[in-house]
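notes to self, project folder thing:

trying the whole complex as one job this time. last attempt i did each chain seperately and stitching them together was a nightmare. two parts in total, labels are on each line so i dont mix them up again. if this works i'll redo the older ones the same way
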Amino acid sequence: MPVIKDVVCSLCGCLCDDITVTVEDNKIMGVKNACILGHSKTVGVQTHDRIKTPMIRKDGELVEVTYEEAIDAAARILANSRRTLSYGWCSTSCEAISKAIQLAEETGSVIDSTANVCHGPSALATQEKGNPGATLGEIKNRSDLIIFWGCNPIHAHPRHMTRYSSFSRGFFTPNGRKDRKMVVIDVRKTDTAKRADKYIEIEQGSDLLLVTALRSAINGHEAAIPKNVAGVSKAEILGLAELMKNSRFVSILFGMGITQSRSKYKNGDAVSSLISDLTQHTKAIMMGMRGHYNVSGFGEVATWETGYPMAIDFSKGYPYYNPGETGANDVLVREEVDAAIVGAADPGAHFPQKAVRHLARIPLIQIDPYPNPTTELADVVIPAAVVGIEVEGTAYRMDAIPIRMKKLIATEFKTDEEILKDLIVKVRELKRGEVTCQSY
Amino acid sequence: MSELLIKNAVVCDPIQGIDCEKMDLCIRDGKIVESVSSNAKVIDAEGRLTMAGGFDGHTHSAGKINVGRSMNPNDARRNLVPGLSGLEPHTEKTRAQVGYNTPNTYAIGYRYAKLGYTTICEAAMPPLTARHTHEEFKEIPILDKMGLTLFGSNWQVMEYIRDKEPEKLAAYIAWGLKASRGYGIKIVNAGGGEAWGWGKNVSGLYDPVPNFDVTPAEILLGLGEANEKLCLPHSVHVHCNNLGHPGNYKTTIETMKLFEKVQSRRNRQSLHVTHVQFNAYAGTSWRDFETGAPMIADYVNGVNHLTFDLGQLIFGPAVTMTADGPVEYANSRMLKEKWSNQDVELEDASGVVPLVYSPKSFVNAVQWAIGIELALLVKDPWKVMFTTDSPNGGSFVNYPEAYTYLMSEKKRQEIILGFPETALNRMVLPGLDRELSFYELAIMTRSIQSRIYSRPEKGNLAVGADADIAIYDIFPDAIDPSVEHEKVKKAFSATAYTIKGGTIVVKDGNIENTPMGRTYWVNATVPSDIECAMQKDLDVKFQKYYTVSKSNYMVEDAYVPKPVEIATEGF
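result (full assembly):
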């Protein structure tokens, strides 16, 4: 039975690349090493419901059509739109993302990624203060103090702790967990917190206060710290600051608990400053625990192609960027866009009600392998191959390491990249009477 | 078969010893040939200055420049050099453009082409992230590219040097170049990247690297010898230790002296020292900081085993980006600037810090002078490569401005007039009256690159060379660059024609075509028994310490769509 080794898991930002998959008769028969989430996604390609064929909504019902008809209908929506939102693209390959950006540029659209509702504020924090980070192997090989802040990797990134952080064995940490201290800062005692050496329960939305107090302690301004900050005693804050200063390599790994709570990007900005201060005493790094397997990739590709990581508005012909004005939710809530194309994402399930209501009112194109609540709103539905299982391509891990995902089984579904290329050609044809696709 | 005839070109091609001579150039299928048929398309250069396409031998245009972009969305809107920076909407022929120091990938290709450049070398690529560099390469139109692979703080390298296993070291380098599709060996602050893994640095050539029991001197020499053993086309490309520290000119000369004992096996240098401006500082602190360029130039004038590039400063905003992690942290603390850092497991470090160079700052003024002093004090232009270490010293779009510093004493004096008094007695530039000719400028911007990178088809217009050609709107007989520096700057900012591989890519400063460039990489052969022994050591590294499997580490063919494989047999 053919066995494919070193398969890259296309579920979360860990992009574990040591999965073994057994394939027979173009069917996945077994998956080894993957966590429960990755396992489910990989075998799910043939057990979960798929969008079986392209569809167009006629008289309120989605009716099966050919790819050509669906692409033609989608291209007409894009060509007739004065302002389109292109959203998602974080669970697909960088090659497809690149084409989605080109399509947005050609159609003068706003394009945004799922970072809009997760680590977008981390990108803003980087713009404010920088991002002192490292690759995951630096944590594995060196880190003797790991702080998980506002994240719960046991459930969200199940192999993170064994493969890259708390439990992993590295060059300078040969005894794994025994060579490290693990601290969890969160509003509730999560399953990750239960395994920590120290759990610090923080009041909801007061992360910025605690980071600021820690900076005061690290910079020798203890007197400025009140008795209690963010629900944490001064003694505990001073203790944590001492632990940080006396560790050889401190890793602060943070999640949506601090990016989407009060103070938003200011939290990441403050953590970056904390790392800078701490580096006066020891080595320290920070890293966002990115969720979708290629949400980092969208940020990377968008940045090199447009200068900006998300929320890019091409209406002027060149990229304009102002999150808060040009983010996906901003343009939906203001009812500013008159059409939308969603790829590899599900705003129907995750966006605020007001935004979803507008999505339901405008022509909506969905490109996805699987049906989801967004499908219920869509006017044109185009099924795609599953990247990392049915098609190869690049994804960026949470630490910005690019890895090539493998093709495990063949499919007749078109890939996201092919669908987007077809759309570019068709939109050009409609708008300018051109059919050739210039290579840049 | 495509043919092109360029008539009445005033050719400046130092590789052939041609100094502004009127001649015709024949092109067939992307190469310079003896003659073409009467069907050839004709361009009449009408006596304009014509050179081989420019070749930037040290630039940061792919890879960590993306960190620079992600920290500086403000840069995307900057338009300090109209026509070569800022916002430009997409057109029928071009993608949208943004930026100044950290432009988007498309802008990099178009803007270099407008300057008459057709080849660039990205100077720092950790193997683990090389795939990213190649992804950006694919989106930089027009230009041919190559990348230098970082080895100066690599665990496997340091262990082989410590354990005195030079053959396995060479085998590892060969494999690392193949894995990253790299062109040569880059060393940044030898050993310093590993020390930075613990928040520390190495202070000089003989400071031991923590936990690895080797010194920077041993790393430099070990890699220098491995480079020659493999007979690689380029020498080791070295960013010296102690970059940015007053007094560092001594470390720089020490490093240069170290390589006196490394014998080159090809007709090229055994050492290239990069952005020497940042490593030519005298004094003991920023208080008594002054130029160290005369001492470096004295040494370089007396030897023949090395080349260097300038790292010329441009006043205004810049973004520093380097694998020298500790220097970037120091910059950020000193300048109270934002800071990004990215240490790469088992391989190296890196950091990015934006800053502004001001002529009002005596330190910046002296730094500006040092770059020019190095170019003028070193007598032989075949030892000097022109760069700004873009965007560390300033963006490449300022190259035409910088040429005028080298070609016009009058222009220099105009700038020096604005300097604070304290700066003037820290530099020797006001006393230098040398002015470079077009011939010398051509050496520094394309001919030396052909030699030091062993690319005989680049940087010249001999029969057989690539038809990469820049025609500038300058009539050499009718211009005096020492006084007409604004005309020189204007002409070098937008070519009359840039021709890439026989295709007109720029005409009258506008992009005409956007072909995809090639990527050069080196495939060095080593004996199979040594390769096998090295692979066993490497397997341990991957099984125990890397977080990416060995089979997923190598850059695949898909990332190098137009590869040029350079095979070498050195063993």
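what i see at first glance: The domain at 54-456 of chain B is CATH 3.20.20 (TIM Barrel).
need to look closer tmrw
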